[in-house]
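Project standup — Tuesday

K.O.: blocked on the structure for the chain from last sprint. Re-posting the sequence here as requested.
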Amino acid sequence: MPYFDTASAAPLHPVARQALLAALDEGWADPARLYREGRRARLLLDAAREAAAEAVGCRPDELVFTSSGTTAVHAGIAGALSGRRRVGRHLALSAVEHSSVLHSAAAHEAAGGSFTEVPVERSGAVDPAAYAGALRPDTALACLQSANHEVGTEQPVAEVAALCAEAGVPLLVDAAQSLGWGPVAGRWSLLTASAHKWGGPAGVGLLAVRKGVRFAPQGPAGERESGRAPGFENLPAIVAAAASLRAVRDEAAAEAVRLRALVGRIRSVVAERVGDVEVVGDPERRLPHLVTFSCLYVDGETLLHELDRHGFSVSSGSSCTSSTLEPSHVLKAMGVLSEGNVRVSLPMGTAEADVDRFLDVLPGLVAEVRERLGAPVSAPPSPAPVASLVVDALGRRCPIPVIELAKVIGEVPVGATVTVLADDEAARLDIPAWCEMREQEYVGEEPADRGSAYVVRRLS
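H.V.: unblocked you, prediction finished:
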C-alpha cells in the first residue's frame, strides 16, 4: 500500500530502527552520572550531538535536543524574543509558516508583543525585499521556513538571512521539511527541525542557537541540554534520530534526482489527465519529493477517502478535510484554489510503478466525486440570457458554491453578473480562483445578511 504522506511523518528508516534497538541496551542510564553506565550513555549522547551538528552546519555546543520539532520552535522563538526584549517586542514571519510558528506569534501578541506576517507570491515564496520591509527598529526576531510543508516551495533563506543580518535581526529557520535533503544555506541565527520528518523516531526535535545570539530560555530552569530543553533526554530516540539523519543525507543526492523526476511526472500528468486542476507551488524551486494540486468541483475529504480505499495515503489542505472547516492558511496566503486539494509527498525508495498506478487511478476518482456532487462535465448550454442571477449556497460547504456558480454562469449574457451567497470560508478563496481558471471576472465580495455575496461577471 503506497504511503505518500512523508511530509507528515516519514517511515522509520532502517538505520534508525537499528540504532534505536542498540541504544535501548546501551543508552538507558543517566548521561549526567559519572559511573560507567552513565559515562557510556554520555558518549552516545555526545556522538549523536556531533553527528546532528555536522548535518545542521553548527557547533555541537550550539545544538540541543528537544521533545519535538514543535517544542523546538516554541522554545526557540520564546528564548530569542526574551533575550532581545530590550530591542523590542516585534516579530516578523512569513504568512505560510508552520502552525507552530503561528501559534507562537499569537501567544507573543497575547502577551503584549506584536508581529507582522509577510505575504507570499502565488508560488508560495516570499519576496526578500518585501520581507526586509517588514523589519523594524524594534524587531527582535524574524522567522522563515526553509521550505513549505504543504506545497514544497523553497524559500530564499540565504537572501533573507543576509538582509536580516544587515538589519541586526536574528533569523530563525524552521528546517523541518528540508533538513533531510541538505543543510540550510545562509547566515541564519537559529534553526529547528523534527526527526520524524526524515525517518527518525517521533519525539525528537533539534534546536540550534548560534553563538552570539542573545537567548534567554523561558519556563522553569532545567539542568540538561544547556537549560533549553528540560527533562531527561530520550537517549535511544536521540541516537536513532542522529544516525538516521546521517543515513538519509548519504542517500539524499541520488534520491533527490529520482524523486524530483517522479514528482515532475505527477505535476505534468495530473495537469494533462485531470480537467480543471491547479498544480500549486513553485515548479522549479521546490523540495524534490512533494507536490500539491487542487481539483475544481471536488470535496477534498471524499477524494482522500477514495484514494485511501484504492491504497494511497495522501494529505490535503482543503477546508473539507480540516477540523476548523477553513482552508489551509498556506493556500489562502498564496491565493490559489483550495477545494479538492491533494498533497503527495513521496518517501525515499518510492517505486515508479506506484506513482504510475496513482496517476492511472486518480482521474477516474476525481470524475466519480464530481459526478456525485453534480458538477458540470462541460460548459452548460446558454438558454435565453438573463441580466443577472443570484445563487443561494448558504449553509453548503465546499465545493458546492463553486459548482453552483459553474452551472449557471452560461445563463447570463457576457457582461452580466452572477452573485453567489455563501457562508463557507473556502468560498472566499475558491470563487476568485475559479474565475482565474475560467477567465471570468471576479468583481469582488459584498456584505450580505448571512455570509457574503461574491460577484462574478461573465467575460466569455
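K.O.: great, moving the ticket to review. The longest strand covers residues 441-447. Residues 389 and 418 are 5 Å apart (CA to CA).
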